[in-house]
């Protein structure tokens, strides 16, 4: 009861006063400390639990391994300790535990360890495939892992494609990212979300494909009202000197967020770089009387 209410101190008092503690009570106490971020307390309970001959259940182990992906100076040591315990008790083949191990090593950028756990799994479900694909998000082998997933008969989902498109964006794999986005709906019947579309616009913009990025946005009405996507496109216009599209996108942003000074600054930069100084002054005049103050203005 106290654990569910978030009163871990009171729960610990009741727990310590119990004359007999079974595996259920140990797991409840351990899970409560983990969920409330009491990592040092959790490791203390974990070690006491093992000394008294009780075992954590799969759910608690998965929580522990998931939290080990968070920054901490002792994470590596504790992660290895828990992984060693999992191996000794032959639990590494359990899907939830193996997947949590993959995610833990992935967050620590230990791709080799994550891959070793994955390859040793006798059965791989979509969660484990998504975990190992995420582990490859900074590696050019990410496309190969995706194809392996599909060839194994596992259907990719929204999460799979979010990781894949993001990875293609980070790695500069424009052709691969465009092909995957096209396959989402046509081949796998997965509807693109705003996250997928944002990654696509960012990827095309970074590659200097401003016209293609604008065409991508223009074909999808919902994106024309999404400031985050339009700002990415406007930045690309500034970097790559596309005045025509920059004007269109900037004017749309002025309607959507009229008090965002950054949009005005970007348009002025576009005009400045194009040598259109009169237009720079026109933008400045256009914001007079509005609730917009450019940094450095008097």
UniProtKB/TrEMBL annotation:
UniProt signal peptide: none
Highest taxon of source: Eukaryota
Family matches, as InterPro entries: E_motif, PPR_At4g14850-like_plant, PPR_rpt, TPR-like_helical_dom_sf
Intervals holding PPR repeats: 22-56
One GO process term, biological-process aspect: RNA modification
Molecular-function annotations in GO: RNA binding
Stretches of the chain forming a coiled coil according to its record: none
Sorted UniProt keywords: Repeat, Transit peptide
Entry-linked NCBIfam families: PPR (TIGR00756)
Record's protein name: Pentatricopeptide repeat-containing protein
Native organism: Arundo donax (Giant reed)
Phylogenetic lineage: Eukaryota, Viridiplantae, Streptophyta, Embryophyta, Tracheophyta
């Amino acid at each position: 009861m106290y654990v569910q209410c978030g009163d871990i101190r009171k729960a610990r008092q009741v727990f310590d006063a119990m004359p007999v503690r079974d595996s259920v009570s140990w797991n409840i106490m351990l899970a409560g400390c983990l969920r409330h971020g009491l990592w040092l307390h959790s490791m203390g309970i974990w070690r006491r639990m093992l000394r008294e001959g009780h075992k954590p259940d799969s759910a608690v182990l998965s929580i522990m391994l998931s939290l080990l992906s968070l920054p901490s100076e002792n994470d590596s040591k504790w992660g290895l300790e828990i992984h060693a315990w999992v191996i000794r008790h032959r639990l590494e083949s359990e899907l939830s535990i193996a997947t949590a191990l993959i995610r833990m090593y992935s967050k620590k950028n230990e791709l080799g360890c994550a891959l070793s756990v994955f390859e040793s799994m006798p059965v791989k479900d979509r969660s484990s495939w998504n975990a190992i694909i995420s582990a490859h998000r900074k590696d050019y082998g990410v496309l190969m892992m995706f194809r392996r997933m599909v060839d194994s008969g596992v259907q990719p989902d929204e999460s799979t494609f979010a990781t894949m498109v993001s990875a293609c964006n980070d790695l500069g794999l424009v052709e691969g990212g465009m092909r995957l986005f096209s396959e989402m709906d046509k081949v796998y019947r997965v509807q693109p979300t705003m996250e997928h579309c944002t990654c696509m616009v960012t990827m095309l913009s970074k590659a200097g494909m401003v016209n293609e990025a604008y065409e991508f946005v223009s074909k999808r009405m919902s994106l024309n009202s999404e400031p985050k996507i339009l700002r990415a496109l406007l930045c690309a216009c500034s970097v790559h000197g596309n005045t025509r599209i920059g004007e269109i996108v900037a004017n749309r942003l002025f309607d959507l967020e009229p008090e965002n000074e950054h949009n005005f600054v970007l348009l002025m930069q576009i005009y400045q770089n194009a040598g259109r100084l009169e237009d720079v002054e026109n933008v400045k005049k256009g914001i007079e009387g509005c609730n917009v103050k450019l940094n450095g203005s008097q």
